[in-house]
Amino acid sequence: MSESDDVIAVFAEECVELLSTSESALLQLEDDPTNEEIINNLFRAFHTVKGSSGLFGFDLLVSFTHVAENVLDEVRNEKIAMNGDLISLFLESRDHLSDLVDISLSGCTKLSGELAERDKSLLSLLNGYLESNESSKTQNTEAEKTSPEPEAEGARVKNTYWHISLRFHEDALKNGIDPASFINYLGNLGEIMTLRVIDNKLPEWELFDAENCYIGFEIALDSRATKIEIEDVFDFVRDDCDISILAPESQITDYLRLIDEFSEKDMKLGDILVSIGVLTQQELEDSLDLQQQLADDLTGDGVSERIPSIGEVMVQKQVVKKPIVEAAAKQQRQINSSTQSVRVNAEKLEELINLVGELVISGANASLLSDRLADTGLIETMENHSRLVEEIRDAALSLRMVEIGDTFNKFKRVVREVSKSLEKPISLEIHGGDTELDKTVVEKISDPLMHLIRNAMDHGIEVPSIREAAGKKKEGTVKLDAYHDSGSIVISIQDDGGGLPKEKIRLKAVEKGLISETDTLSDNDIYRLIFEPGFSTADQVTNISGRGVGMDVVRSNIEALRGQVDVDSIPGEGSTFKIRLPLTLAIIDGFQVRVGDSHYIIPLDMVEECIELEDKQTDEMHKSSYVKLRGNILPYVRLREIFSIEERQLDRENIVVIRIGDKKAGIVVDELLGEHQTVIKPLGKVFENLNSISGATILGSGEVALIVDVPSLVNSCTANIKDSLKAEGAL
Amino acid sequence: MMFTKKKGSNKKTGLCQPKLSGDMTIYNAEVLKQDLDTIISDYQNFKFDLSMVEEIDTSGVQILMAFAQSVRAQGKEFLIEERNDAISNALARYQLIPLLCEETE
Q1: d(CA A554, CA A99)
Q2: With contacts defined as CB-CB under 8 Å, which chain A residues touch B37?
Q3: A674 in contact with B at a CB cutoff of 8 Å?
Q4: Which helix (H) or strand (E) holds A546?
Q5: Measured between CB atoms, which of A174, A179, A205 is closest to B66?
Q6: A116-127 pLDDT tens trace
Q7: What is the C-alpha end-to-end distance of chain B, expressed in Å?
Q8: A182, A513, A684, B33 - which has most CB atoms within 10 Å?
Q9: How do residues A508-524 score in pLDDT, each as one tens digit?
Q10: What is the pTM for the complete model shown?
Q11: A244 CB contacts (<8 Å, ≥6 apart)?
C-alpha cells in the first residue's frame, strides 16, 4: 500500500466515524431538538467531512456537505428549528453521504442514475430550508462584505475581489499539507482571477531542502462567499500557514498592514499587489504616503530615523483591527476536543497481542525451569517477571477493548425505522453501554443482535390496539443491557411484548419432527426450540423477519464466538434473550488441572472453589451424577469419562466447582495444578466442532493443554442430572 | 519514481534531457533532488520530459521552480519540453506555465 493509499484509508475511516457521530447526534436530537451541544457536534461532523473531502478533491462530497452544513449553520444560529422532518431529511442525507464517500473513493467524479436523482432531490429539500432565510442571510452577507468591523479611517481600494495572502511554514509539506488542495478547494467558492507564487525564499540549489516549503501565494478571488466561508477553507492549515484575507474594497490601511506583515527581504509586495491588480499604482503611492503621514503624526517631527511599521502606527492610532484569522483560529482551538488519542493499525495491535502471547508461554517455560533449579533468587525474579507479563498482557488486551455502547447506539436508528414501517411505536432503552469487550467480538455480535431486536419488534411487541386492550401502554419497549459476569460479558435483549407463543412452538416442533407429541418438555426447553434451523412460527413473512433463517444463524454466530444464547419468556409480559460471550478471544487467566497424563485448562473466572473429595464422597458419586455439597445438589462431570482417559488407582479425586450465571456444576479431575496464564490457540478446522473443548494452549513444558468448554459441559451436566433425578423419582 | 536521461543528452553539447516518470510528490522529493544533483553541474541546457509523470504535488512543482531558478541564475537554460495533463493542471493552477514551459528570452 503506497503512502497516499494510507492517507486515503485514514480519510475513509474518519468519514465512517464522522457519519456515525452524525447519526447518533440526529437520533439524540429527536428527544432533545434544541440541545446546543448536540447541534454543534452535528455541525462539526458535517463540516469536517466537507473539509477533508476538499483536501482530496472529492467535489461530489464537498458540494453536498456544503449545502447541508449551511442548513446546520442556520440551525445552530436558531434561524431554522430542528424538528422531526428535518431530522429525517438529515438522516437520509447522512446515508446519501455514505454512498458519496464510497463512490468518491472508487474514483467516480460524476453522479448518474438513482444516485444523481437522490442527490438532486435531497439538495432541493435542503436548499428549501435555506431559501426561507435567504433575504436575511443576503443582508448579513452584504454587511460582512462591506464593513466586517467597525468603520475606521481611510479610503477604500477599488479592487472588487477578495485578496488572500498565504505563507506556508517551512514544515508544511512535511506535515502533510499540500497547498494545491486548498487552492483547489478555494476554487469551489468562486473564480481565482490571479494567483502569484511568492518564491523569494527559494534558496540556491545547494541549500534547497526538497521537503521544506519555501513558497507562498497571493490570490485574487472573485466570490460571493462570506468571509467566514473563505476562512473555513483554511481551517486545517491555521497552524502551518500565515493567512490574510481582505474583503473586496477593503480599506487602503488594510493593504498597508498586509504589505507590512507579509513583506520579506528583497521583496516588494506592494509592487506585486499592483502587478496582480489588487492595488492600482496610485493606491499604492497614496497608501505609502499615508504611512509616512501617520508615522510623522506619531513622532511629531516629520523626520524619523526609523519609519514605524504600519502595525505599530495602527496600534497607536487605535485603528488596528484584530486579525480575523487569529480570532477564528482561537475560536477553532476552543471548539476542538481536548481528548488525545492515537490511531493504530488493527494489524499492528494483532501482532502485539500475538507477541504478548508468546511472551506468556516463554515466561511459563522459564518459570518451570526456575522451579526445577530451586534457586530462591531466580524463583523470586521469575515471579516478578510473571506479574509484569500479566500486566503487559492486560494492557495489550485492553487496547482492543471497546465499549459496546457504540454498537447499541446504532440500533436506535434501526428501531426508529422499523417502528415506523411496522406502525408500532417502540422505544429502545440502553443500559450498560460503557461495558467493554474485545473489538473483534463487538464486530461479530452486531448482526445477531440486530436480528434479535428486529424479531422482538416484529413478533414480540403487539400492535397498539392489542397492547391497550391488555392494559399495557401503547408504546412498546425493547431494552438492551450489557454487564460483566464471571469473566464473561452478558448482553440481554428484553421486550415487553406478548411473550413467545409456547403452544405454537411446540406444535411446530412436532410438525418438523424435532419432538414427538408425547414428549414432556419444560417451558425453557420449548422456547429453545426456536433456535433450530428452519424454525419460524410467524404466520407471515415480513420484510423484517419470519423467513426462519434467522435464529439458528444467530445461535451459530454466537457459538462461533465461544458464546451461548438462551431465552426466557413470560406469556403476556415479554421475552428476554441472553447472550453470554467471552471478554476476550486471546489470553485468559486459566486454572490448570490434570487427568491421567493429560493437562486441561479451566477459565479461572468461572471457577468458584476447589474441593478435595473424600473416599466416601467418591463412592457415592459413582452411583449418581450429582453430589451433595453443603446440602445442595451439585451436578458434575468427570473429565476422565468425557475424554475417555484410562482409569487408574488414585489417592484422591478433586472437584472444581464452576459457576456460569445462576448455574453451578462440578468438574472432577485428578490433580489441581494452580493458576496458569493461558494464551488461547485456536483449534484447527478438524477439531472446530468438538463440544467440550474451546481451544488449546501451550504449557511451559511445551506440552499442549486443552481448554475446557465450560458452558457446554454445564449444559450437559444439568441435562444429565434431570435424567438422573427423574430416574430416582425425585422429579 | 524513475529518473533517466534521454538519448540526446550529451555533456559535450551541454544538452540534458531528463525524463521523469512515476510520482513527483513529497514522498520522493528528497530522492528526486538527489537525482537532479547529478546533472545540475554537468549541463547547460535542460529540457525536461515530464509526459510520464503520474502524480505531482506542490513539492514536485517547487523542485522544478528551484531547479529552474538555480540554473537560470547561472545563465543556463531550463524548459519543460513535454508534459501531460497532470503536469499541465498543476502548473496552470499556480500560473507557472509561462515561467517553466515557455522559452524565455
Answers
A1: 28
A2: 205
A3: no
A4: none
A5: A205
A6: 999 999 999 998
A7: 32
A8: A182
A9: 888 888 888 888 888 88
A10: 0.53
A11: A163, A164, A165, A258, A261, A262, A323, A325
